[in-house]
Amino acid sequence: MSTSLIKLNSGYDMPQVGFGLWKVNNDTCADQVYEAIKAGYRLFDGACDYGNEVEAGQGVARAIKEGIVTRSDLFIVSKLWNSFHDGERVEPIARKQLADWGIDYFDLYIVHFPVSLTYVDPEVRYPPGWENAEGKVELGKATIQETWTAMEGLVDKGLARSIGISNFSAQLLLDLLRYARIRPATLQIEHHPYLTQERLVAFAKREGIAVTAYSSFGPLSFIELNVKHAEGAQPLFEHEAIKSLAEKYGKTPAQVLLRWATQRGIAVIPKSNNPKRLVENLDVVGFDLKEEEIEAISALDRGLRFNDPHSYDLPITIF
Ligand SMILES: NC(=O)c1ccc[n+]([C@@H]2O[C@H](COP(=O)([O-])OP(=O)(O)OC[C@H]3O[C@@H](n4cnc5c(N)ncnc54)[C@H](OP(=O)(O)O)[C@@H]3O)[C@@H](O)[C@H]2O)c1
C-alpha cells in the first residue's frame, strides 16, 4: 500500500501518512517498525523524548537487511529535545540520535518544543524529560535563533535533509522566518476536530511550510496519561458526526479522522501498538469525503488542546 507525497520547500518528498512512535513500547517497537514497513509505511516519526530510537532503528535495519526497502525509500523523522537547544549541543545530540537509529542522516529533524531547558548529560539521564539532573524544570538560555542556526548547520553537514519545528505559534514562526537562512520545511502541531487551528494551518501553508498533524484521534492518546480534560471529552470515535460518516463510507472512525486531515492537505502520523490498527491507519486515502462533510467535522472545533505542558502539571506556558 502506498501513500501520497507532499513536496517540501527543501525539494524533498514527504509521505503524507506515517507512523508515530510516541508511546510505542520498547519491547515491541523493533517488530512494530518492521511490520509497519512491510505494511507499506515509509515515514517514521521519532524523537529523543520517545526513548525508543534504538529499537526503531533495529526494525529499520531488519527491513533493509531483508531487502524489503532501502534507506532511500524511507523518510525518518526525529526531534531535538528541549535540553539540547544550546547551539553547541545540537550537532552532538543529533549525531547520537543518528547513531541510535543506525543511520547517517535524518530526512527531517524537528525542534520538538519552543522551550530551552538546561542541559542534561545523556550519560546521566537519557532521554532527559522535562527535568534537570536535580529533578527541577529549569529554563535554559538558548534563543530560538541560536537553536535554529545550529539546526541549519545540520543541513549544511548532511546530517538532516530538511529541518522543521513543532508546537510553534504563528508569532514564533513569524519571528523565525525573519532570520531563517533555511526555512522550516514542516510545522508539526496537535490537530484534530476539537483543535483545528485554522489560522495557523493557513498561515503555514501561505508560507510554503507543510503541516503535520499529531494526535489526530484527539483525547484518546491522552487518557492513558491521565490528562483530566481528555477523560472528560467525548471520544471522537463515538461522536455521531464521525460515526455516521464511517458507516456511510464503510470505513472506521479512525480512518474518517485521518482522511479529514489528509483532505485538508495535512500530513498525519497515527501511532498504534496494534498490528491490525497499524494497517488500517495507512489505508486512508482511497475514499473522499465531500466538502460539506469536511466542514461538518471542522465545525466540531472547540480549541481543546491536550498536549500542553500544563496538562502534565509542568510550569511551562507556551500556549
Ligand atoms: N510534536 C509533538 O509534540 C508530538 C506530540 C504528540 C504526538 N506526536 C507524534 O504524533 C504521533 C501520533 O500522536 P499520538 O500518539 O498522540 O496519538 P494518536 O495517533 O492520535 O492516537 C493514538 C491512540 O489511538 C489508538 N489507535 C491508533 N489507531 C487506532 C485505530 N485505527 N482504531 C482505534 N484506536 C486506534 C492507539 O492505541 P493502540 O496503540 O492500542 O492502537 C492510541 O491509544 C505520536 O506517536 C508522535 O509521533 C508529536
Name of the CATH class: Alpha Beta
What name goes with the CATH superfamily? NADP-dependent oxidoreductase domain
First-to-last CA distance: 37 Å
Structural class estimated from helices and strands: alpha/beta
Strand content: 5-15%
CA-based shape: globular
Largest sheet, spatial ordering of strands: 3-4-5-6-7-8-9-10
Q: What's the helix-strand series? A: EEEHEHEHEHEHEHEHHHHEHH
Task: List low-pLDDT spans.
Answer: none
| CATH domain fold name | TIM Barrel
User: What count of helical segments does DSSP give?
Assistant: 12
Radius of gyration: 19 Å
Mean pLDDT: 96
What proportion of the residues is helical, as a percent range?
A: 25-40%
Question: What attributes characterize this protein structure?
Answer:
319 residues, alpha/beta, TIM Barrel, eight-stranded parallel beta sheet, two-stranded antiparallel sheet, 12 helices, 13% strand, binds NADP nicotinamide-adenine-dinucleotide phosphate, oxidoreductase, AKR2D, carbohydrate metabolism, EC 1.1.1.307
Description:
The active site is at residue 50. The record marks 79 as: Lowers pKa of active site Tyr. This is D-xylose reductase [NAD(P)H]. The chain has 319 residues and is an alpha/beta fold. It has one domain: NADP-dependent oxidoreductase domain (TIM Barrel, Alpha-Beta Barrel). The chain has twelve helices and ten strands. The chain has helices at residues 26-39, 53-65, 87-101, 144-156, 170-179, 198-206, 220-223, 228-232, 240-249, 253-263, 275-282, 291-298; strands at residues 5-7, 13-15, 19-20, 43-45, 75-80, 106-111, 160-166, 186-190, 210-214, 267-268. The strands form two sheets. An eight-stranded parallel β-sheet has the order 3-4-5-6-7-8-9-10. A two-stranded antiparallel sheet has the order 1-2. Strand 8 (186-190), helix 6 (198-206) and strand 9 (210-214) form a beta-alpha-beta unit. Helix 1 (26-39) packs parallel to helix 2 and helix 1 runs parallel beside helix 11 (275-282). The radius of gyration is 19 Å and the shape is globular. The two termini are 37 Å apart. The mean pLDDT is 96. It binds NADP nicotinamide-adenine-dinucleotide phosphate. Residues 20-23, 45, 112, 166-167, 188, 214-217, 220-221, 252, 254, 269-274, 277, 280-281, 307 line the site of NADP nicotinamide-adenine-dinucleotide phosphate (NAP).
